[in-house]
Amino acid sequence: MPVGPTLHMILAEYGELFFGRGLPAFLLVIFLTAWIISRNRILERQMIGLNRKSLLAEVLESLAAGSLGGFLGTLIFIFLGISVDLTSSAIAALWAIVVILIMIDLRFACVSYAGGIVALLHLLIGWPDVNVAGLMAMVAVLHGVEALLIMFSGGRGAIPVYLKNPENEKLIGGFTLHKIWPIAAVIIMGQRSAGPGLLAAPGWWPLIKSDSVPVPGNALTYMMLPLMVVLAYSDLTITMRPGTKARRSGGLLALYSALLLALSILAGKTAFFAYLAAIFGTLGHEWVLAVSRRFETERQPIYTSNPDGLEVMDVIDGSPAAKMGIVSGDLITGI
Fold first, then answer.
1. Using CB atoms within 10 A as the burial measure, which of 14, 171, 192, 253 is most buried?
2. How far apart (Å, rounded) are the C-alpha atoms in residues 28 and 34?
């Protein structure tokens, strides 16, 4: 696949997403990002009395990180060749299941759960019309992007909170981690007949092929389409520093992503692995959450009452404490 012309086509799709037909979706995602960040800023003001950054700065920071992550995901989708055949029935089913799951528990508002359920529905009853391998590979790639974002920026802006220790009812300190990233990516879909803006499929490419059947006399080709999604990360730690917690959570999610991608590739070869990918997409995500919770329950809190002094949880940039060189984890024994 020629790199230069392919990158040119990718950039053209980004242009359509940001300034053309995708602009309404882009603006909607930016609005959603700003709204969620503004809600997190309320908790920050309640806990430390101010917001460390402006709303505009936080939105731009999320947009910049999400754009880098989305472009990385695009390169994986295009150059590995992961065909995501999202039909109208599959999109409708995904949204309907997401809404139902949110009504059960907000933590189910994740494409891994809805994607796994849609894939199983297709395998069991033939509806909705969807390429299971491509759908689950999309879930894997998006979670891989999320894992990298969590590892590199998930611990930034963590908010200190106070909780009651369930064992002795004493106050302990911790951090709540909230991040949201608008992701702009470009995916490929199978096209039954040739036309402008299509990619011919050379040799082994694509790794995950489309289920579309070409029109007689035409070769199966692939078309680029923009994709706009939101990735969110929410966590709580009482036993680790925010950066350490984010790196561990991101590492677990990266492992889940790699295993799911491998199963998705195999799912394109045999139905047995299609079932495994659909099931692992949901249960594997639950495993990630369970291991993360176990990290917290099996370790001792690090911010507890200390008879030797006052332990510093966090320091605001530019504050007198920061200018004195006080950092998180310091123990103040006297003033």
1. 253
2. 10
